[in-house]
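Run: sequence + 2'-deoxycytidine-5'-monophosphate -> complex structure.
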Amino acid sequence: MKPMINVAIDGPVGAGKSTIARECAKRLGYIYVDTGALYRAVGLFCRRNNIEIAQENAAEIEKAINSGLSLEIKLENGTQLVFMNGENVSEEIRLPEISMAASAVSAIGCVRKFLLSTQRRVAEENNVIMDGRDIGTVILPDAQVKIFITAKPEIRAKRRYDELIAKGIDAKFEDVLNDLNTRDYNDSHRAEAPLKQAEDAILLDTSEFDFEQSVRAVINLIEKGQ
Ligand code: DC
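>> structure
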């Protein structure tokens, strides 16, 4: 069987990874996989079940997810939906408090292990553009194309803020910027699969790009790289 095309996109919070990757996947006919949604769903699961998200509590988290959590990714008209034990939680996982829970839960080794096979399976079976923090380094080390997308923190915070407001979620710019800096720090300083650029990834800074320019830059890199 012909190997599938795997495109790994990593980068910090609000770099535009998901909107850019989704659009590129649509234009290329690939499947877009947003792996952050899986960590968000685990964060939501812990919060709903009053499970403390802390390294010291890793044993309880491991037991709870292995015995009581089933996650599924479904595609509906090209949009990824996440189902937690059969319930569509795609909207709820976008709330700001779930962002923090996701970042905290993603530092716990058993959670990363739990989600590894779900991510690899979809990449084995489909041409994918997958975005996250450790896709090029850990999940798909053999991806044909690896891109690390970033932008200046203030620009990323402004984009995230605009997104929340557009969805009708109440937010303050300073809070969004603080959350973003805290999450970036946590995500890049954790022991397990920290956020970092893979050695063979191409760095793309979109600070000066609008959406269309970013999409074209990524498609260019994909077409050159595969
Ligand atoms: O991309 P996002 O903001 O939806 O991700 C939520 C959190 O999940 C983020 O703070 C870090 C974590 N994450 C991760 O550790 N590894 C991934 N592949 C994707 C997300």
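>> summary
The longest helix spans residues 109-125. The CA atoms of residues 161 and 173 lie 6 Å apart.
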